[in-house]
Hints:
Layout: H1 4-38, H2 42-61, H3 68-92, H4 106-114, H5 129-132, E1 137-143, E2 146-148, H6 149-152, E3 158-167, E4 170-172, E5 180-190, E6 193-198, E7 202-206, E8 209-216, E9 219-223, E10 226-233, E11 238-241, E12 244-250, E13 273-275, E14 288-291, H7 308-319
Parallel strand pairs: 1-3, 2-4, 3-5, 4-6, 5-7, 6-8, 7-9, 8-10, 9-11, 10-12, 11-13, 12-14
Helix pairs in contact: 1-2, 1-3, 2-3
Amino acid sequence: MASTSSLGASGSTNAAQAQQFYSQFNEQLQDLRRRIEESTSPDELQHIGSDLAQARASLTESTSILPSYDRQLHETNLKHINDRLDAKRGTLLPKKGFAFQRKAKPAASKAALATPSPAAPPVNTNNSASSAITPFLSLTDRSKELLTIASLETHHTRSDLHLLNLSYCTVDLRSPSSLVLQAVQVRNLDHCIVQLGNVDGSVMVHDCTSCLFVLGCRQFRIHTSTKVSVAIHTSSIATMEHCSSLTFTVITASSLESASTTLEEEASSKLRVQDFDHINESEPSQNWTSTDRVQSPNLFAAPTLPHPAGLELLFNAQQQQM
């Protein structure tokens, strides 16, 4: 059996490889989307199809280092791109010409007129997969900014969201707009306040430090993060791995409905947390704690740029309870 240290080193190596694959693979998919949109001939689509097959092969080869959620996300994105490619083929490939047919007998013509065969429904290009399927939205490589729905510059009503490489930012996506976040991926955030509102699916957090998340979701997972506070409304078990100094606070669904809420409400239920690094279930994990109230609700009211000192005070106060 491998030693604990070797298993930890192996897990860290896999996490680094997974993050590198995540960035490179998403760049590859973005390039495929762009090429599909800009393509003007069937030959171009054939080359795109070959590259799409190579992307699928690389995903299969990297399965062993990827978390299950990442694999599902990449497979879903590949399917979406394949659907868009098929839709584009339908608009670029030449339609079949009319073939000359023998003149039908009069009796057959009457029968045909009496019982016409059903016609194929017309193809509505406005509702095809190319317009129904949307790429994920993203906010990347920002520092000391206030990021809102307007920052996404999207007209889509449903989409996944990726937050990547943000530092000292406030992300406030609570809004009465019709945008529904289906799933959210968060990677490499430092000293950020992230308010997502209600997410229709899951939220996955990787490699974050000194951050505050306020959200509702069906599933929450956090990996390789430290000094993170999570104010959450969920009915499922929150899972964590390779994390330390986490604080969880349960909030009600109504706390996420508008940007004017200050999250003063009491927790509606007790949150269940599974720490994969904590083996002895008879003792509480030293990697996380829970509180009855969010430590500093004023931070969540009107969206403002986070103040580093204010965040440090928040996390220092939380750590004293651990």
